[in-house]
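dumping this here before i forget
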Amino acid sequence: MAQIKPGTLGNLYAYKTYTRPTAHKLYGEFSYRKKELPKHHENIQRMLHVLAVHGPLTTWGMAKVELLNDTSKVRAREKQYRKFLVGREDRGKHSPGVLEIGL
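structure:
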C-alpha cells in the first residue's frame, strides 16, 4: 500500500479548490494533449502542479523534480521558475508573478 506524506492531502485539496480554479481564470485551461495556451501560461500551470503534488519546495527543488540529472537544464528551469514567482518585464509588458497574484 502506498504511503502518503503528511500534508500532501492538504496541498492537493487547496490545489483542487482554490489554486487550480484561480489559475484557470488567470492563465486558461491547461491540457497536456492540446497546445492552445501560450508557453508562459503552460509553464505556470506545470509549476503550480509540481508544488501541489510535492508540497513546498525551493525553485531548485521544483526544477529538480522534472529534470533529475541534467544540472545545466535544472539551472535554466530554476531561473525560469524564479521569474514566474516574482514576475517579469518583457518588451515593455509586465507579467505579474504568482506571488504578486496571490496563488
